[in-house]
Amino acid sequence: MEDGGVIRQRPRERIIATARELFRKHGLRGIGVDAIAEAAGTNKMTMYRHFRSKDELVAACLRHAAGEVEAFWDRLEAGHPDDPLLRLYAWVEIGARCVNDDWRGCDMANAAVELAGSDHPARLVIEEFKTAQRNRLAKLCREAGIVDADVLADALMLLLEGARVSRQSSGATGPCARFAAVGEAMIRAFGRADSSRPRQTRRRGVRPIEPH
Q: What one-character-per-residue DSSP string does the chain give?
């Protein structure tokens, strides 16, 4: 719906957008449904029509975040459709920007810490998302001809997870500042299965593909 040229969000979308921002600022347990409803410009009755509980709202917020990352993969593919190795280096480059630009860390990882040991419905969302991301990265490593593609994918995922935590604890000038250099070194160290092809290095000035 438009009002004077401004596109209004539907109530469900507005509640999710507001809740995501508040959860990032205060944590999942640090903000209640009353505050979320008020900030979203609605009331608890409307919110509970869309989400049966706060737990369901948390899960919906994480699914929304997962959808944004899937769109990032589509753009990564479109940006370098014929060069999987360049896409792999671009993944590292974009990961470095993500680490450096967002001091609050990964929504999924932060939620996993808060929900550890619980049977919260968001736990399944987190596990499925992290597994899918790792598998997508492993597929890219295989397409790029990397030796031990699954091991490199696990190493890069661990590097990204650790770098995002380091950004929160040690700041932008801490170990996370070397994410790109370490990631690129890891790719070169693993090498390619087809050794007859010259090893390709990341080209500077790669057209940026911004993640959401």
A: -EETTEEPPPHHHHHHHHHHHHHHHH-SSSS-HHHHHHHTTS-HHHHHHH-SSHHHHHHHHHHHHHHHHHHHHHHHHHHSTT-HHHHHHHHHHHHHHHHHH-TT--HHHHHHHHTTTS--THHHHHHHHHHHHHHHHHHHHHHTTBTTHHHHHHHHHHHHHHHHHHHHHH-TTSGGGGHHHHHHHHHHHH-BS-TTSPPP-PPTTPPP----
